[in-house]
Amino acid sequence: MSETVQVARLNSRGMITLKGDLADQDFQDVAVKITGLSFPSQREIRLSGEMGLAWMAADEVLLMLPVEDVSAAIETADEMLRRAPAVVANVTDARVLFSLKGKRSREVLAKLAPVDLSREAFQPGQIRRTRLAQVAAAFWMPQEAQFEIMCFRSVADYVTELLEMSAAPGTVPEYF
Amino acid sequence: MSTRLAIGGLLINRDVPVEFTFNGSRLRGFKGDTLASALLANGESFIGRSFKYHRPRGIVASGAEEPNALVNLGKGARAEPNQRATTTELFEGLEARSQNHWPSLKYDVGAINSKLSHLFPAGFYYKTFMHPRSAWKHVFEPFIRQSAGLGAAPVEKDADRYEYFYATVDVLVIGGGMAGLAAARQAGEAGAKVLLCEQTQAFGGRALVDELEVDGNNGPEWVASEVAALESMERVTLRTRMMGAGVYDHGYVLAYERLGDHELSSTGPRHRLWRIRAKQVITATGAIERPLSFAGNDVPGVMLAAAVRDYVALYGVSPGDRTVVVTNNDDGYRTAMALHAAGLVVPAVLDARTEATGALPEAARAAGLRVETGRGIASVKGTTGVEAVEVCAQAGEGAVLEAISCDCVAMSGGWSPVVHLWSHCGGKLLWDEGQALFRPDAKRPPTGAGGEGFVITAGAASGALQANVALADALDAGKNAVAALGGSASGRAPKAVVPAEEPVAPVWRMPQGAGYKLRSKAFLDYQNDVKVSDVQLAAQEGFESVEHAKRYTTLGMATDQGKLSNINGLAILSDALGQPIPQTGTTTFRPPYTPISMGAIAGEARDGLFKPIRKTPMDGWHDENGAHWEPVADWRRPYTYRGAGESVSEAVTREILNTRTAVGLLDASTLGKILVKGPDAAIFLDLIYTNMMSTLKVGRCRYGLMCTENGFLFDDGVVARLSEDSFLLHTTSGGSDGVYGWLEEWLQTEWWDLKVHCVNLTEQFAQVAVVGPRARAVLETLGGMDVSPDALPFMGFRDGLLGDVPVRVYRISFSGELSYEIALPAGHGLAFWEACLAAGEPHGIMPYGTEALHVMRAEKGFIMIGDETDGTVTPQDLNLGWAVSKKKTDFIGKRAQERSHFQDSERKQLVGLETLDPGALLPDGAHAVEPGLNAYGAARTLGHVTSTYHSPTLERSIAMGLINGGSRRMGEVLDFPVDKGVTIRARVVDPVFLDKDGERQNV
Q: What is the pLDDT of residue B462?
């Protein structure tokens, strides 16, 4: 059997939802300015240290940043987007993050999410909004053999149990 | 009698003995055995009794098609009924028990049914149990229920765990026999991503058993080299013990992997249900041998011919010392030769064909075997085992020419391709007259979204029964799959050298002119005890459609889904109807191919993972402080907090009185909170809500209603205007996701030109309600912001700090008391909750649960979505017409509410109900009735109770109800018959029971 995949709950990370016209230059500028990352295309995520910028939907991106920087970032965004039909919202407390580490992390997630998790289909740099068993979730890969998983706060216990069960030693197939 | 041979057995390891029990007897097999082969090795060929007639039954087949050898497997938390002995791998400590007998397998009371079989013909349920009518319920049904069913249902909770696995591949190959291996290799060599699954423990299929030469190797050698070649390919995955269970639209396939069934206890999941997306599916599912329909073809010891040689070759087991082979094709001779080669006696090969001149029959003759053409079996002698066969002319009526003593009969009625997976998603079949079989029509495959086929058959599953033809077909299948992916494969077909075979002769009855007596002992469906005579009777009684005949006779409706009986049954039906077989057609092939476990279907969803429970940030505190939980949508919420020695109702009463007289604390975090922002936000909300939201002032709150297009109320809540262009919408706890989706749908599909964005912030905020006359004092004790009536008037809100926490305080009330709802980042929820309790202690603060909330809102006559509404109730019905704008040109539900029926003053309307006896509590849902009967002779109902409680505040019962023309009935007394002879009388009153002027909250 494969080596163990480690499941861990991560400390909270500052998160800001930005909804608006993704093609709008002002809108892009806000996201880029706050995160210092390039603007992502569909199903892409940019990561650097604690900073992150993820495509979430055709009208939505997610900014990740240190918790202590959120208030200032929201002020900046509100100011820059004053005239644009856009919305800025702090969602730091709405989400919970987990990490999976280990060679067989892909397999652990493939038990729960209806996503093609093969190496050619899913790689670092991509984000996928999907479900884990019965709840909504999103995940991305900071690097190979590593995932970060985001879910809503209210179902954190459920997702913890799901991931721990899925990663239980001796149960993870070698597929990918 | 069956026994273990001294040598042979490709799959068994004679160095590893395995002990198991059958009906409590300790027996021994070898690693690699199936339960069936191990039972045969121990001389056990009588395995169970049949469903209807309780006839002794034995092992017929060697694989998934087995109809008879079903056992109860395991015990306690690992008990499972109806497990096929032929697909159950032997493991140390396996416990099997035979089924459908009492008191024991050998002495069974129900076997009397067999003697009375003329009383149980096809459709006997419908004929026998008609009169007297009452007897059905009291006599017949209990009797049938008692005697129905095969195995015993487990009573303990399943000890194992199960899981899913999602995979996406280019080519999924189902079946790891010769064709599957060859097709997978084609696809694999072309670079496709391939998943090959084989339902048994070993790849190879018939190549492991039947003598053949492929590319200079014998079967097993060739299989080993193919498997090795596939294993070396990076993009090819091979799995054994994994069955393709069902093929669905868009290349979606379920495969059932049995990980723990060959061990007593494994740490991992027992079964894994693979949910596969495949661009192309190759079904290399082989073929199933057909039985022959002669009298006594169900006596233990009568087996399929190929199964007989499987047991010899794969497990080193002899199914009998003396085996008579009866066949209508050349393949049956392989069994005769295999037995002969193993040193066993084959007294005769009975060939129903008038001549047999192929290479295989000639080889049998050359080996000195007695071959009789034009012969068949009139009847098998023996009850719990074969003793002899009576030989007759196939062309005749069954006059016995001779009896041959034997202990095994190997029958071959030809082969039927396994077309199930091809057919699941709409692949069509055609009748191949020459081979007497239905095979896939490659021109009419199951089609994908673009109308192109996505399933390809390979090998015997295509109807290519002989190895050389099958391999050529598999090569094409692999190439076609690759071509469909836009690639090209150029592999060479392996060359198989096999003896040429003469055609099969269709034999649907043996002998041809069998009389009723013989036909009524010639079984088609072993598992459901359907005989040739039953199908003929069904046809005679007018069941011409194969689907009707199937249901009338139960042919093919058992757990094996007619794998052996299907073709024989419809051939008999066609014959009885005097029409060709293709005109009769087949019944529908439905997934799964063989039964899969309920556990695999449920996957991970059991115990704590059965259903996600949403928890608020304060959930842990509630749990530690006596919360008596209730589910509210997907959340769990405290119904009440029980103190030591306190009953639930005592706790609720305490919480209400404390809130009304001092101060209470409620976790309201589950409320939906949706941010709506944009230049057109006000316009949008005017369309969404029935009332006017555009006039709401910044910093103020307004109670709003949402209706469906049909004008019915579906959600309510308080809207706060955060700024000119942004609003925060509160929804019901259960409605947050639905309302958010509703808003998005209207924005995306109907009003896409509105400049508005919505964000569901339900999870971002914890929300705490501080409620009661001393609520302000508590907030002042916390300190940090001005919460005086001037700074924060009723229906206002302010942002600020309470303690150190950034909050937004809404002064809104669902209880009629002075009340503040405080929203704050969820991460601070628990700390703030505890701070409120500490600050409130001197003021007498106590937390309260949802029941106190419900009672207090009912005392005030406030409605609750789901209690006062049921999807057919309008705001006007609930006296909420004041919240439906008459000025707005449009809102969702407006047009519907203008329909005449919605204006009818006799609609059910919300009223308060005051029982004449203050102590009497109306049951929820109780109906008010008026004298007389309606057109159907039933009571004339006027409406029903929607909410009902004991009010500790008013020291009496209170209720609300929806009553016909309720508003004009004020003061009327209505009758609510609640039980035999018990009627509760209640007066129609204003639904606001407490503080009609709202003085308590305006302080």
A: 98
Report helix, strand or coil for B224.
helix
Contact assessment for residue B565 and residue B89, using Cβ atoms and an 8 Å cutoff: no
Q: Tell me the C-alpha distance between A145 and A123, whole Å.
A: 10
Q: Report the pLDDT value the prediction gives residue A1, as an integer from 0 to 100.
A: 45
Whether B165 has its CB under 8 Å from any CB of chain A: the answer is: yes
Same domain for B730 and B775, yes or no, is: no
| DSSP string across B880-939 | -GGGS-SS-S--TTHHHHTSHHHH-TTSEEEEEEEESSTT--PPTTPEEEEEEE-TTSSE
* Cβ contacts of A165 on chain B, cutoff 8 Å: 161, 604, 609
What domain range includes position B926? 904-989
- C-alpha separations of B208 from B176, B202, B204 in Å: 12, 9, 6
Predicted complex ipTM: 0.97
Centre a 10 Å sphere on the Cβ of residue A29 and count the other Cβ atoms it contains.
13
Is the same domain home to B566 and B714? no
My answer on whether B531 and B567 are in the same domain is yes
| Joined tokens for residue B655 | 């919480």
Q: Write the CA distances from B872 to A160, B271, B707, B712, B713, integer angstroms.
A: 40, 45, 11, 6, 8
Closest approach of chain A CAs to the CA of B501, in angstroms?
A: 42
Stretches where chain B sits below pLDDT 70 are 102-103, 107-121, 123-133, 136-137, 139-149, 264-266
Residues of each domain in chain A carrying CATH 3.30.1360.120? 6-10+94-166
Q: Residue B604 and residue A91: Cβ atoms within 8 Å?
A: no
Contact of B274 with chain A, judged by CB distance below 8 Å, is answered with no
Are the C-beta atoms of residues B173 and B185 closer than 8 Å to each other?
Answer: no
Contact A85 B763 (CB under 8 A): no
| Contact between A116 and B168 using a beta-carbon 8 Å cutoff | yes
> What is the CATH code of the structural domain delimited by A6-10+94-166?
3.30.1360.120
Residues of B in contact with A113 (CB under 8 A): 166
Question: How far apart are the C-alpha atoms of B650 and B80, rounded to whole Å?
Answer: 47
Interchain pair A175, B165: CB under 8 A: yes
Q: How far apart are CA A110 and CA A166, in angstroms?
A: 9
Dihedral pair phi/psi, residue B132, rounded to 5°: -70, 160
* Contact residues, chain B, for A134 at CB < 8 Å: 605, 611-612
Mean pLDDT over each residue of chain A, to the nearest integer: 96
Residue among A115, A134, A173 minimizing CB distance to B611: A134
State the angle between helix axes of B546-553 and B532-540 in degrees (0 to 180), rounded to the nearest 10: 120
Using the Cβ of B763 and the Cβ atoms of chain A, whether some distance falls under 8 Å is answered with: yes
First to last CA, chain A: 14
Residue among B755, B757, B726, B740 at smallest CA distance from B673: B740
Q: Are B630 and B636 in contact (CB under 8 A)?
A: yes
Note the pLDDT of residue A2: 46
Q: Which residues pair with B675 in a beta bridge?
A: B728, B759
Residue B114's pLDDT is: 67
Query: Does the CB of B164 have a partner CB in chain A at under 8 Å?
Result: yes
* Structural fold of domain A14-92: Alpha-Beta Plaits (3.30.70)
Question: Above pLDDT 90, what percent of chain A?
Answer: 95
What residues in A contact B269, CB-CB < 8 Å? 171
Contact criterion met (CB < 8 Å) for A90 and B726: no
Q: Is B388 a member of any domain? A: no
> For tokens 């984000």, what's the residue?
A127
- Interface contact flag, A153 B763, Cβ < 8 Å: yes
Q: Which of A110, A133, A169 sits opposite B609 (nearest CB)?
A: A133
d(CA B834, CA B805) in angstroms, rounded, equals: 12
Residue A19: list chain B partners with CB under 8 A.
757-759
Cβ-Cβ contacts under 8 Å between A and B: the total is 120
pLDDT confidence of residue A113 = 98
The strand pairing partners of A89, in sequence order, are A17
Cβ distance of A91 and B168 shorter than 8 Å? no
